Amino acid sequence: MIRALPPWGYMPHAASDWDDRPPLPTADMFARDTYSKLLAEMIGTFLLTYTIAVAAGSGAFLAAVAIGSTLMTAIYAGGHISGAHYNPAVTLAIFIRGKIAVAEAVAYVLAQILGGFLGGVAGFVLLDGEESHPPIGAPDLASGVGRGSAFLAEVVITFALAWTVLNVATTTAQANNSYYGLAIGFTVLSGAISVGGVSGGCFNPAVVMLTFVRAISTESVTEHVWIHIVGPLLGGGLAGALFVLLQPSEMSTGHPFGAASASAPLRKQAAPYVYEAVGTFLLCFTVACAASPRNGSGLAPLSIGSMLMAQVYSGGSTSGANYNPAVTLAVWIRKAKSAAGAAGYVLVQCIAALCAGGVGRAVVTEIGHPVPADSSVINDGRAFWAECVATFFLCYVVLQTATNSLVAGNSFFGLAIGYTVAAMAVTVGPHSGGAFNPAVGLLGLVVEGSISSRLWIFWIGPLVGGALAGGLFRLISVEEKVITHKSVKNLNLTETGGKASRRRSTLHADPPAEGVGESFNKYFPTATPTVELKPPPGLKPQPSSAADVKADDKI
């Protein structure tokens, strides 16, 4: 006999203790629930800051991977208890979003600060006395970096982090997904690689406690500590405010920016385009910083692929998460998007890429951008071929993992898309420049101030690759080609006669207006589909034990 665990955290000691009615809430239950949440927040923040203190303090080459992975696993461990904020900036974003009360938010922040301090102390105990490096790692500005550059880096990456949290972990459109921890943790991994050498890669005011713990041995606190507090809080606040503006249906009843507000329909129509702009901006900003000549990490492909993965997960259910004119072209050929909608996406993608280049230049001065190998090594034709094949691979993966109804509801689409780019950046990036995206190719305009004679490689090559992927998709996936952008369907599981069968039904009961967001976002997973199996009429399920036998037993 299977029963759901009663609410309020009550766990019976024996089968006979079960009662179909949930226990009445008491002050003691509320207190235990609060203590559990605060303890989970403290433990998660402790583990994160301990990893930073030791991995960064030891100068580990893969410190960014360790930090992002620790955050990911700690989120999976504590998300069902406290929500796994582990960061005052994230708590602020969730407060603005309306998912946590003021008193509880303050308590969360205090628990996070305590956890950060204890993590620093634990790291200090381990590393104290070793002369080869400072006692513990702590965020600090790189030599020669201006305050404005570091502050801007902290704002942008913390915005990306909080934006990812809000979209993958707090929305009904993506409820019950299994990728939330991966997306959040690897956003930090990406940021630590791309701007860690600029601002110190804090993105979390609780991590500032490491600076104070390190002062035990250095006997000084950096004068730039405010950057690692104010910058992340501003980034988190901006993410929360933008989410509220673009997601009226996610707001509570009576919220001034909720679904009942007069501006809700207009904001809902604008949301797909803004999501495309945000995702493209963050991708191009990461390229600009991670691939900068001043970034000596050697992990740029990992940073770029991780950011793309996280933003695909973040925006997939709203805009379809194209972030690439070549992908938009492939989706249009696949007939999952209207011509007007595709043109609008390409426009905002290009504008966002240019803006990202400008912001990236303010952060690292000399931004990274796609540049083919010297013509004496590889001519333009071969560079074009490399861009074409790599972009074909990317668009083929997008169409098959994110728009094919046979794999609808999967959780691997973002991972597949992001790490296709990472793989191709390693494979052909040294030869062609590794754009695979016409919008990314525009970063060269920010550097040179004029159109390069080789810019066509990053536009024609990816667009040809995207067109080939769209055409071949229609040849390979024969059943899919009859689905147009006006009637995109999704395969869901339903119960028929006690057996699971497939039927076609629209994924969104409330589709966007014509020409807006009717991309392949309708295939991105929302709530995990479930199969309810019922016994034939008249057949009563067998109890698991004599203690479970009751007159009204039901599964």
Word description of this protein:
This protein is mainly α and 555 residues long. It has a domain at 30-261: Glycerol uptake facilitator protein. It has 18 helices and 2 strands. It has helices at residues 27-57, 63-82, 88-97, 102-127, 147-169, 180-199, 209-218, 227-246, 264-290, 300-315, 325-333, 339-364, 380-402, 413-427, 429-432, 438-441, 443-448, 455-476, and strands spanning 490-496, 499-505. Strands 1-2 form a two-stranded antiparallel sheet. Helix 5 crosses helix 8 (227-246), helix 6 (180-199) crosses helix 10 and helix 11 packs across helix 13 (380-402).
Secondary-structure topology with pairs:
Layout: H1 27-57, H2 63-82, H3 88-97, H4 102-127, H5 147-169, H6 180-199, H7 209-218, H8 227-246, H9 264-290, H10 300-315, H11 325-333, H12 339-364, H13 380-402, H14 413-427, H15 429-432, H16 438-441, H17 443-448, H18 455-476, E1 490-496, E2 499-505
Antiparallel strand pairs: 1-2
Distance between the termini: 7 Å
Would you tell me the overall average pLDDT?
Answer: 83
Element string (H = helix, E = strand): HHHHHHHHHHHHHHHHHHEE
Rg measurement, Å: 25 Å
For CATH, the homologous superfamily of the domain at 30-261 is named as: Glycerol uptake facilitator protein
Helix content: 55-70%
CATH topology type of the domain at 30-261: Glycerol uptake facilitator protein
How many strands appear in the DSSP assignment? Answer: 2
The number of distinct helices, counting runs of at least 4 residues, comes to 18
Alpha-beta classification: mainly alpha
CATH class of the domain at 30-261: Mainly Alpha
Low-confidence stretches: 1-19, 482-555
